[in-house]
Amino acid sequence: MAGPEIERLIQLLARLPGLGPRSARRAVLHLLKKKDTLLVPLAATLREVGETVHACDTCGNLDSRNPCGICTDSRRDEALLCVVESVADLWALERAGVFRGRYHVLGGTLSALDGVGPDDLNVDGLIARMQSGKVREVIIATNATVEGQTTAHYITDRLASQNVQISRLAHGVPVGGELDYLDDGTLGAALKARRPL
Amino acid sequence: MAGPEIERLIQLLARLPGLGPRSARRAVLHLLKKKDTLLVPLAATLREVGETVHACDTCGNLDSRNPCGICTDSRRDEALLCVVESVADLWALERAGVFRGRYHVLGGTLSALDGVGPDDLNVDGLIARMQSGKVREVIIATNATVEGQTTAHYITDRLASQNVQISRLAHGVPVGGELDYLDDGTLGAALKARRPL
Ligand SMILES: [Zn+2]
Ligand SMILES: [Zn+2]
Questions:
Q1: pTM recorded for the entire structure
Q2: Disruptive mutation site among A8, A11, A12 for chain B (greatest number of B CBs within 10 Å)
Q3: pLDDT at position A175, please?
């Protein structure tokens, strides 16, 4: 139909979440219409992101610096560590602007169904971060799903022997809800009313 | 929040039709997760498409060749010319596989509201293509919208002095409907039952 390069571009774009074949075709036509202002900058930025952005060795955040901008920001409280499932959840908390400590990204949740065990999550890295003695409180901000709660319990057990306070986001996070879908107010309230475990 | 490269990528992706800021963020995380199999090939393909794909000087189709693959395909009937509003509509007809002639892309429709006049559409190019004497029939396949029908009438008038038969896609295209949203069967039926103007 269209040339092979265009077909290939449609197929690649159709693999993005939220886009199917039809919207990918529309996206390609839009990109070609806005070649100088959208297609060329997008190609360059994708390439730059691909070459420079990596997971932070300390916290798992995605950044062009390693350790990342959050881990090296001296204005942020290194005594407070917020454990999240994913970078998407870290971004959600940052957008809400309600947390001024640092993060630890697990990279998923325990799930027997999906075959995700403790070794598949960055829990050892979390324990290792306790060795500095600087972390006073670990706030577990996994999602309020069954897997998120199972993971929270597991982490609580693993941290039991450490000299840190452990807390959990307050209910306020709707049961079954995911952080990335919550408004800033709800996120802020849940963080403020966090309860010790 | 995230680094400036990531923020820029989110902003660019959010400008694609069908994606908003939230889905753009999810797309970026997905791209970074599938860096080697999706992000890198997408950046390269975007760049290649940006550098090689242009509008065909003959018909307005988008292709890396000029004249395009359709214009130079000797198996296609050069006596049949199908006039469409956009490359999206050309793609829709090609996907349906119901037309084996060639195309002419107008690049829009007449619209007093949007300030689109005859000079903004590639109508002169269409008239010029009649000079070869090889085109026997022009099938006007503009959308069944008010603008599409106004444009069809205008083109019919412009072609009146040419020695060609003019036809229009049969009703079968739902009134108010756009070609790009139709199933192949409807498109094929509408083409077969096209009526002379
Ligand atoms: Zn970090
Ligand atoms: Zn062409």
A1: 0.83
A2: A12
A3: 66
